[in-house]
Amino acid sequence: PPELRVLNNCSPSQLEGLCSFLQLSVCPEPLLVCFCGWLLALTPSLSYTSAAILAEQLFLRRVLSLTQPPSRHLMAALASFCSKYSQPFCCVLVAAVLQEPGKGAEQTKLVCELVEECLEPHCVQLVLRQVLEMTLSEKLLPVVQAVVARKEVLPLELLDLLVLTLCRQAPAFAASLDYAKLVTAMLSVYQSQVS
């Protein structure tokens, strides 16, 4: 709808106010899919700041409150939004999910699914950088595994940081099956670069 062009003319505070007025954070999921479809067609594209605000308003509360796998509508909306605005999405939503200590398996599975199926290669690298800035935990190992499973060519400094992090934190995962799987996958995928 032509009315959506107003999103390009809003200041950040106006956009937050508009999202609040429209109750986008709690709108029904089928409408969320439709709204994200409209965002894809919006010209010119949203600025980084506007896309980040929308990522937070549309998805953050929904994702952090997941206690079971996301609905197909929510996954469709996430995939649609990620296809055009993956960098602000990662910086806002993925970072929040990874840093939330109390969040459980559903959020981690969702991030893994997004890494495996939706995110562009540069955003997969962004997710990996976000993970490596934190202390590795059992919760984060599947996310790194999903990145490695993509078999993307990683920049040398990022690959070095990943190897170094896995080596330094190995003692903490002495009994971890997920850690063992991750190291095996690393040696398989990046065999020529890892000595």
Automatic annotation (TrEMBL):
Residues 1-194 form the Fanconi Anaemia group E protein C-terminal domain. One of its GO terms (biological process) is interstrand cross-link repair. InterPro entries: FANCE, Fanconi_anaemia_gr_E_prot_C. It comes from the Eukaryota. Coiled coil: none annotated. It holds the Pfam family FA_FANCE. One of its GO terms (cellular component) is Fanconi anaemia nuclear complex. This is FANCE protein. It comes from Sclerurus mexicanus. The lineage of its organism: Eukaryota, Metazoa, Chordata, Craniata, Vertebrata. The gene is Fance.
